Amino acid sequence: MQANDQVPEEMTDAPVTAEIDASETESTPVAETGPSLEEALLQAQRKADEYQDAWLRAKAETENVRRRAQEDIAKAAKFSIDRFARELLAVKDSLEAALATESASVESLRSGTELTLKQLVAAFEKSALSEVNPLGEKFDPHRHQAISVVESTQEPNTVINVLQKGYLLADRVLRPALVVVAKATA
Predict the structure, then answer these.
(1) 49-77: per-residue pLDDT in tens?
(2) Whole-prediction pTM value?
(3) What is the count of structural domains for the chain?
(4) Is position 133 within any domain?
Protein backbone atom coordinates (compact mmCIF):
# COMPACT_ATOMS: atom_id res chain seq x y z
CA MET A 1 0.00 0.00 0.00
CA GLN A 2 2.79 2.33 0.57
CA ALA A 3 3.65 2.16 -3.05
CA ASN A 4 0.13 3.16 -3.84
CA ASP A 5 0.17 5.89 -1.19
CA GLN A 6 2.86 7.65 -3.03
CA VAL A 7 1.36 9.51 -5.87
CA PRO A 8 3.54 11.12 -8.42
CA GLU A 9 3.65 14.92 -8.25
CA GLU A 10 2.21 15.33 -11.68
CA MET A 11 -1.00 13.59 -10.69
CA THR A 12 -1.38 15.43 -7.40
CA ASP A 13 -1.10 18.80 -9.09
CA ALA A 14 -3.89 18.18 -11.54
CA PRO A 15 -6.68 17.29 -9.11
CA VAL A 16 -5.67 20.07 -6.72
CA THR A 17 -5.87 22.58 -9.56
CA ALA A 18 -9.31 21.30 -10.47
CA GLU A 19 -10.39 21.62 -6.85
CA ILE A 20 -9.05 25.18 -6.71
CA ASP A 21 -10.87 26.06 -9.87
CA ALA A 22 -14.10 24.66 -8.43
CA SER A 23 -13.60 26.48 -5.12
CA GLU A 24 -12.89 29.72 -6.97
CA THR A 25 -16.18 29.50 -8.84
CA GLU A 26 -18.02 28.75 -5.60
CA SER A 27 -16.49 31.74 -3.82
CA THR A 28 -17.12 34.06 -6.80
CA PRO A 29 -20.23 36.10 -6.03
CA VAL A 30 -23.21 35.31 -8.24
CA ALA A 31 -24.02 39.01 -8.51
CA GLU A 32 -21.18 39.41 -10.96
CA THR A 33 -22.82 37.02 -13.38
CA GLY A 34 -26.42 38.21 -12.67
CA PRO A 35 -28.98 38.49 -9.87
CA SER A 36 -29.76 35.42 -7.90
CA LEU A 37 -33.09 33.75 -8.26
CA GLU A 38 -34.23 35.09 -4.88
CA GLU A 39 -33.27 38.66 -5.79
CA ALA A 40 -35.06 38.38 -9.13
CA LEU A 41 -38.14 37.07 -7.35
CA LEU A 42 -38.02 39.95 -4.85
CA GLN A 43 -37.68 42.50 -7.67
CA ALA A 44 -40.58 40.93 -9.53
CA GLN A 45 -42.68 40.96 -6.35
CA ARG A 46 -41.85 44.66 -5.78
CA LYS A 47 -42.85 45.51 -9.34
CA ALA A 48 -46.06 43.51 -8.99
CA ASP A 49 -46.84 45.37 -5.76
CA GLU A 50 -46.16 48.72 -7.47
CA TYR A 51 -48.41 47.80 -10.40
CA GLN A 52 -51.17 46.62 -8.09
CA ASP A 53 -50.91 49.82 -6.04
CA ALA A 54 -51.04 51.94 -9.21
CA TRP A 55 -54.03 49.94 -10.46
CA LEU A 56 -55.87 50.36 -7.15
CA ARG A 57 -55.21 54.10 -7.19
CA ALA A 58 -56.41 54.38 -10.78
CA LYS A 59 -59.52 52.37 -9.95
CA ALA A 60 -60.26 54.61 -6.94
CA GLU A 61 -59.72 57.73 -9.04
CA THR A 62 -62.08 56.39 -11.71
CA GLU A 63 -64.73 55.68 -9.09
CA ASN A 64 -64.31 59.22 -7.69
CA VAL A 65 -64.64 60.75 -11.15
CA ARG A 66 -67.75 58.65 -11.85
CA ARG A 67 -69.30 59.64 -8.51
CA ARG A 68 -68.53 63.34 -9.07
CA ALA A 69 -70.01 63.15 -12.58
CA GLN A 70 -73.20 61.58 -11.22
CA GLU A 71 -73.44 64.32 -8.60
CA ASP A 72 -72.89 66.99 -11.26
CA ILE A 73 -75.59 65.46 -13.46
CA ALA A 74 -78.00 65.34 -10.53
CA LYS A 75 -77.27 68.98 -9.68
CA ALA A 76 -77.63 70.03 -13.32
CA ALA A 77 -81.02 68.33 -13.54
CA LYS A 78 -82.13 69.78 -10.22
CA PHE A 79 -81.05 73.35 -10.96
CA SER A 80 -81.39 73.42 -14.76
CA ILE A 81 -84.24 75.92 -14.68
CA ASP A 82 -82.45 78.25 -12.27
CA ARG A 83 -81.81 80.99 -14.84
CA PHE A 84 -85.33 80.78 -16.28
CA ALA A 85 -86.88 80.82 -12.82
CA ARG A 86 -84.93 83.99 -11.94
CA GLU A 87 -86.29 85.66 -15.09
CA LEU A 88 -89.86 84.67 -14.19
CA LEU A 89 -89.56 86.22 -10.74
CA ALA A 90 -89.65 89.69 -12.32
CA VAL A 91 -92.79 88.73 -14.24
CA LYS A 92 -94.46 87.49 -11.06
CA ASP A 93 -93.49 90.68 -9.20
CA SER A 94 -95.06 92.78 -11.96
CA LEU A 95 -98.30 90.78 -11.86
CA GLU A 96 -98.49 91.07 -8.06
CA ALA A 97 -97.88 94.82 -8.26
CA ALA A 98 -100.71 95.15 -10.80
CA LEU A 99 -103.08 93.24 -8.54
CA ALA A 100 -102.06 95.29 -5.49
CA THR A 101 -103.24 98.59 -6.96
CA GLU A 102 -106.86 99.21 -6.03
CA SER A 103 -107.65 102.22 -8.16
CA ALA A 104 -106.27 101.09 -11.48
CA SER A 105 -107.87 102.17 -14.72
CA VAL A 106 -108.35 99.89 -17.67
CA GLU A 107 -105.62 101.73 -19.57
CA SER A 108 -103.07 101.39 -16.74
CA LEU A 109 -103.90 97.70 -16.35
CA ARG A 110 -103.49 97.22 -20.10
CA SER A 111 -100.13 99.02 -20.22
CA GLY A 112 -98.95 97.10 -17.13
CA THR A 113 -100.02 93.82 -18.75
CA GLU A 114 -98.17 94.73 -21.96
CA LEU A 115 -95.01 95.51 -19.97
CA THR A 116 -95.36 92.21 -18.09
CA LEU A 117 -95.78 90.36 -21.41
CA LYS A 118 -92.58 92.02 -22.68
CA GLN A 119 -90.77 90.81 -19.55
CA LEU A 120 -92.08 87.29 -20.16
CA VAL A 121 -91.03 87.34 -23.84
CA ALA A 122 -87.56 88.57 -22.82
CA ALA A 123 -87.31 85.72 -20.28
CA PHE A 124 -88.29 83.25 -23.02
CA GLU A 125 -85.65 84.64 -25.40
CA LYS A 126 -82.91 84.45 -22.75
CA SER A 127 -83.81 80.81 -22.14
CA ALA A 128 -83.89 79.85 -25.86
CA LEU A 129 -87.65 79.34 -25.72
CA SER A 130 -89.14 80.42 -29.06
CA GLU A 131 -92.68 80.67 -30.35
CA VAL A 132 -94.00 78.65 -33.31
CA ASN A 133 -96.76 80.46 -35.22
CA PRO A 134 -96.96 78.57 -38.55
CA LEU A 135 -99.82 80.47 -40.20
CA GLY A 136 -99.46 80.16 -43.99
CA GLU A 137 -96.57 77.64 -43.74
CA LYS A 138 -96.49 74.04 -44.94
CA PHE A 139 -97.79 71.58 -42.37
CA ASP A 140 -94.89 69.91 -40.49
CA PRO A 141 -96.00 66.95 -38.38
CA HIS A 142 -92.84 67.27 -36.30
CA ARG A 143 -93.75 70.81 -35.17
CA HIS A 144 -97.50 71.02 -35.68
CA GLN A 145 -100.50 69.03 -34.55
CA ALA A 146 -103.42 69.09 -36.98
CA ILE A 147 -106.75 69.43 -35.23
CA SER A 148 -108.78 69.38 -38.42
CA VAL A 149 -108.48 69.45 -42.19
CA VAL A 150 -110.69 71.89 -44.09
CA GLU A 151 -111.33 72.35 -47.79
CA SER A 152 -109.71 75.56 -48.90
CA THR A 153 -108.60 77.47 -51.94
CA GLN A 154 -105.11 77.63 -50.44
CA GLU A 155 -102.45 75.12 -51.37
CA PRO A 156 -103.08 71.66 -49.81
CA ASN A 157 -101.19 70.87 -46.57
CA THR A 158 -100.89 74.55 -45.69
CA VAL A 159 -101.70 75.83 -42.21
CA ILE A 160 -104.74 78.10 -42.54
CA ASN A 161 -105.50 78.71 -38.86
CA VAL A 162 -103.45 78.49 -35.64
CA LEU A 163 -105.57 77.56 -32.63
CA GLN A 164 -102.68 77.50 -30.17
CA LYS A 165 -99.08 78.57 -30.73
CA GLY A 166 -96.35 76.01 -30.31
CA TYR A 167 -93.02 76.45 -28.56
CA LEU A 168 -89.48 75.25 -29.20
CA LEU A 169 -86.79 74.90 -26.58
CA ALA A 170 -83.43 75.18 -28.36
CA ASP A 171 -84.89 73.72 -31.60
CA ARG A 172 -86.65 70.90 -29.76
CA VAL A 173 -90.44 70.90 -29.75
CA LEU A 174 -91.70 71.74 -26.29
CA ARG A 175 -95.32 72.00 -27.40
CA PRO A 176 -96.56 71.54 -30.99
CA ALA A 177 -98.76 74.23 -32.50
CA LEU A 178 -102.43 73.22 -32.80
CA VAL A 179 -103.44 74.01 -36.37
CA VAL A 180 -106.11 73.66 -39.00
CA VAL A 181 -104.73 72.40 -42.34
CA ALA A 182 -106.02 73.05 -45.85
CA LYS A 183 -107.00 70.29 -48.25
CA ALA A 184 -107.83 70.50 -51.93
CA THR A 185 -111.42 71.26 -52.85
CA ALA A 186 -113.37 68.39 -54.29
Answers:
(1) 999 999 999 999 999 999 999 999 998 88
(2) 0.57
(3) 1
(4) yes
